[in-house]
Design brief:
- The protein has 401 residues and is α+β, with helices and mostly antiparallel strands.
- The chain has 16 helices and 14 strands.
- The strands form 4 sheets. The chain has a 5-stranded mixed β-sheet with strand order 10-11-12-13-14, covered by helices on one side. A 4-stranded mixed β-sheet has the order 1-8-9-7.
- A hairpin with a 2-residue loop joins strand 11 and strand 12 (333-343).
- Helix 1 crosses helix 13 (269-276), helix 10 crosses helix 12 and helix 15 (365-379) crosses helix 16.
- It is globular, with a radius of gyration of 22 Å.
Amino acid sequence: MELRTRDARRLAISSQHLDGPGARGVGEVLNTLRCLQLDPITVVAHSHHLVLRSRLRTYDPAELNTLLWDERRLFEYWAHAASIVLTEDYPLHQALMRGYPAGKSAYGRRVAEFLHGNGALREHVLDRLRDSGPLPAGAFEDRSAVGWVSGGWTTGRNVERMLDVLWFRGEIMVASRTGGKRLWDLTSRCLPAGLDRAPLTETEIVTRSAEHALRALGVARRADIEQHFVRNRYPGLTEVLATLVEAGRVVPVTLEKDPTPWYVHADRLPLLTAIIAGDWTPRTTLLSPFDNLICDRARAQRLWDFEFRTEMYVPKAKRRYGYYVLPILHGDRLIGRVAPRADRRRGVLELEGVYAEPGAPARAGTAVRRAIAELAAFTGTERVEYSGAVPEPWRAALIRN
């Protein structure tokens, strides 16, 4: 089967609930995406809330907190980055837990040396949690014998580094958050009773993870799967994909003018058939900079011809667009980006810049305005102000008296 690039884009967008109907609830979104990247920056809102908001007509963050902290259907762990993941996927994440630190790289060896040299600190953390958890990082004494040294801001933060190491190893978990700070506890207290923790084989883990990734991506190359969900944790993926193709779980496809093999999960074939037949409803929305649709920058460039990078750590004078930039999804295209900042004290969503991609539809201004208004409503700001660049073709639609 050969796909047009347009249909591949639409399949990817629909698979992630970013087309017209959207999703019915948080659970449906998470059952597809399998992870929501965490990011501490709140210039607009936390990234994971932006990801859900863009896929749901109405979204209340309290719903996510209920699933995460009350029902324990979710937990925080490392997927393609620090993320919220599904508790039912715990056996898949055990692959990283069992092997951490791997010690195959210079960084891995450094982590292993830090862990080996700080047995007293490790036992102190576990004992304190056993006796008094959940606890914040400040509740532990620095009993390290070997200090953590890095090229960045983590140097000397020995307790925090030990907590992270034990988290990666699956010995402790984030039990809750208060004021944005993590409260830690033993994993045995955080996971729900009855959860199947039986270890899976490496092949079983890679197979299930690859199927999750492919369902979320809609259509993907092997390299795309490698970069999604449990990024770079797919040993033997080529053989696994061949087995899935033979079993009819995955279907090879080609993309116009691309010799690289692409794949579609069998569960997505009815959706693809409808899209090819023209049954597809577009929508316009703003995406988090860490949205699952574009978290693989190379894939975003290949499928949408959209070059995107975050500029938060770029000096202001060298930024092209702004500190916190949200891509604009309009139908099956990424047509531009906005740089918003929520000033909740003044009740204003300030647009420090709006930028259109070359060839962006001039008539898209009204839809972009509506998407910006939806974001303002979500952030609780009453007005939208434009303090930076605005594309001339969209100006009349965006800036109204």
